[in-house]
Structures are given as C-alpha cells and as structure tokens.
Fold this protein.
Amino acid sequence: MAERNLVAQITVSRKPDADTEKKIMEFIKSRGCSDAEYVIDPNILGGIVIQIGNEIYDGSLRSRLEKIRRAL
Amino acid sequence: MLDLTKIGKNLKEKIAEVSETGDSHNTGRIIYSGDGIVRISGLSGVKYNELLNVKGGYRALALNLEEDSVGAVLFSGEDKVRFGDYVYATGSTAEMKVGEELLGRIVNPLGEPLDGLGEIHSEKTRPVEFPAPAIMDRGKVNKPLQTGILAIDSMIPIGRGQRELIIGDRQTGKTAIAVDTILNQKEENVICIYVSIGQKASSLSKTVNVLRDGGAMKYTCIICSTADDSAPMQYLAPYSGCALAEYFMYQGKDVLIVYDDLSKHAVAYRAMSLLLKRPAGREAYPGDVFYLHSRLLERAAKLSAEKGGGSITALPIVETLAGDISAYIPTNVISITDGQIYLESELFNSGVRPAVNVGLSVSRVGGSAQRKAVRRISGQLRINLAQYRELAIFMQFGSDLDAETQKILSRGAKLTNVLKQRRYLNYSVKEMIVLLLTVQSHVVDSVPEKKIGEYTEGLLDYFRINRADLMEKIDPDAEVTEELSKDILAAAEEYLNYSIGDNSQRSINDV
C-alpha cells in the first residue's frame, strides 16, 4: 500500500504536549500517514485513540476500565 | 465476616491480569441497519463467516463481502445499533463452547446457558464450521444404534455414524421418535445432543421435561433456538450442535444428534439470504441451500479405528406439507441422508403409532450394523408384511379367500398391530427377538386380532419375570438356534394358554 495518503484521526482528552505530539507523529508516519487531525473528547477520560483508515488503536483509559469491568 | 483484605487482593490480581496495552482493531462503521441486517463500510481484511463485535456488546456474523461494504447479520440488538456505530472484527469465526460440562445443560447456539443453572466453566471451544472427516478417516458403520422402537430397529435399522432422516407432516410423531431414541440410550453409552431450531418454546419445554423425567439429561445437551430467536441464531444452532458432537466424536465416543427440524433451518436461512439481497431460487430459497444441509450432515460420520472409532449419528427431522416429499427441502435432505423414516398422518390417525410407513422408509447402511439375531428374523418380517399388503388389496374386492390366504391376512394384521408401540415403552434387543419370533409363528393364530397388543405386552412381562432363564440364553450377536427358538415358542404358548384361560374365566364372571 504505497499510495496511502491518509489523515490519522487522533482522539485525546486534552491537548498533548509537544513531546508527546512528536511521538504520535512518528508513530503515524510509520503506519503510512502524512498528517494528523486532533479531536478533543473528554469522554475517553484519558490516554489516546488513534484511527488510521480502518485501523483503530485504542489506548484510552475508558476502554481499559471497560476491559477491567468485563473481567470482573 | 467478610474478609475485606482478601477480596481486595483478589480484585487486584484480576485487574493485574487484564492487559494494559491498547489493542489495535480492524474497524468499520455501520452505514445501514434494518431487519437484523447491517451494512458496514470499512472492515478491510474481514473474513467470510467472521464474528464481529458491534459497539455496545452485540455480535454479528459477516456473510457478504462486497467491494465497498460488508453485509452482516446481527445475533441480537437489532433495535439498539445505530447508524455510524463502530464495528470491530474479532479475527475469529463463530465458536461454540464444548466439553463434558455441557451435558445436562440447555444452551443457546453460542454456548451461553439458558437453564439458570449458572455459568458453564469450560475453557474449550470449537469452531462452529468445521470440515467433515476425510474419506480415509472414515470407518464402516458396524454398530447398531438401538432406538428401542420395534418397527425401526427391525426393519429400518440405524447404525452408529449413519444419517437417518425422520420425515412427515406436522403432528405425526417425528419428535417423539427422536426423543424416544434419546431416552433409549441410557444404558448404551451414547452422548445425545438435541438441537431445537426455531421451535415453539412451549413444545420445547415439553421435550425438556420428558428428557428430564426420563433421566436422560445426564448424557444429553440441548441446544436451543426458539421461534422468537433471530434468524442467524436459528441458522447457527445445528452447526453449534455439530461442533459439540465433534468434540466427543474425536475423543472416540459415540454421539447421537437430533436436528429438530431442518425445514425451519432452511426457512431461517432463506430469510437471511433474502434480506442480504442474494438471488432467490426455487421456492425462494437461495442457491446454496443444498450446501447448507449437505455440509452439516457430512460432518456426521463413523471414524476409523486409527482415528479413535468415534461416531456421530444424525437424526435430522424435516416437516412436509400435506405429505409432499417432492418439495425442495425434503428432496434435498433425502438425497443427502442414508435413508429415511417416513411418517404418515393417515397411519397416525388410524392408531398406528409410531406411524412409520414401512414401504417408503429405508435404511441404506444400517442393515450391516444390525445385530445378527435380529437381522435374520426381521428379514422375514419385511417379506411377510409386503405379502400382507399385497393381499390386503385383493381382500377389498370381497371375493372368497382360501384358508392359506386368510392365514396370511390375519397374521399380517396382527404383525401390524404388534408394531404399534406406546410412547416411552422401549424394547430391548432380546425382547424384540422374542416378539418377532412369536408373532411370526403359529402361536398367535389363536389370539384374536384385537387382543394382540395386550397379549404381546403380557408376554414380555411373562418372559421378564418367569422365563428370565430363556432371556439370558438369547445372544443378539449369534443366530438364534433351532432349539432356543423352539423353547421360546413353547414358553409363548404356555403364556397364551395361561392368559386365554384367564380371560375366558373373567368373561364368564362378567356375564
């Protein structure tokens, strides 16, 4: 998939600092993305959700709590 | 007192078990939802038959993979999913919980308990769709599956690993035969699985009670999808049941599985296919409705000794409309199975129960699995009955009949009567041998036709109590010797004299 010119959608609970942002850019570039688009959504409580095309990387606090709830 | 520190520790351990890393999902979003069908955009790389998780904890099955969308059917929550909801691919096909823990339980096609007896603690699962055993892995059907029903075990014998269709109109006792067969496996070391597909909950609860009261639940699992379950649930039920059966078969055990019934299964599949906009064929069934049942029934097999020698015997049930066995689904399933038991409402209503039409019923492989003694005696039975039916037509002309013909007619009528059997009254192999020997001999000539049922029932009691020594001598795996059959007939005559004497005395007293 050489010609992927995707914009990653990044959901965070609050704006990340510059250092984190750099790490995020590195990550999405390694997945073939050129640009990132930020969405601030306090509902995810914390952490980060990155969506690139059909792929979602869910590292939010909310989904982790949900997992714990299911395990109990 | 509650040990709070212990609870806290347990909780901590459990939380520690939950993985901390965020997972990556292949996702899509719902772009259409209606009639239990969802269309999803995205989900690149999803497989056919893959299980999907819809946001909110609902599950769906991916069935149509198209250029720009994926068509899937929802198992539940069709009124809850919304446009734009995320759908996650699970990466695995639908799986069924398996294990000994499922015996005695009632579960849905995904292995979730429905009987309120608590969670099923089994870690083992099997894919719901699984390839049938290869040709070289199969063995010869050589052991009988005793139904305990005289008409079937003598003339339409079923072997372990066979697929025998039970077909007939509504209210002809199809389920009764299947349930009686399950009840008869108590001493036979056969695990039973009863799959209910789209049945009324009321009739299913009746069946459950019969099995429970008969003590059959110990070795039986019921996979249940009722008429109010979604079409995909009904579609999945027989495959789930088969997955559980395979788990036992590959351990070398013998399994009996009843699919009740496959006509409703085809209807559920038709509903799904039409909603998925697949082209409709004959009777509006989709083109692959034959494959739907053939791939299911091919999984019933007898394994070779090297593979453990286990078996799955399948008893699919198909309901016909007005006795029409040339409809689409009946002809399909007839051609897949190794024979059929054909039930007729006319027979049923005239009191012949089980209402087996002996002329139209066949078993293509069971004969070689029949016990030696029974095979020999019942071969004669088929001929006698055929002869009787042929002559019975002439009888209707009312012409004078010679003594020989009359004898055949009266014996035939009695034979038909002996084949009537009350429900839950299963015969053992030895009892069948005694019955078959007696009713085909001169002994019954002096029994009036109306009394024959009474006579045979009493006869079996007499053998059980007074002539246990003779019963002991019968070896089902060897031919009945001349001497033994003489002894049996003598004993039958003995009982006849005794019972007739008894009756005549009673009738005198009554007068």
Chain B has three domains: 23-92, 97-370, 377-510. Confidence is low (pLDDT under 50) at residues 505-511 of chain B.
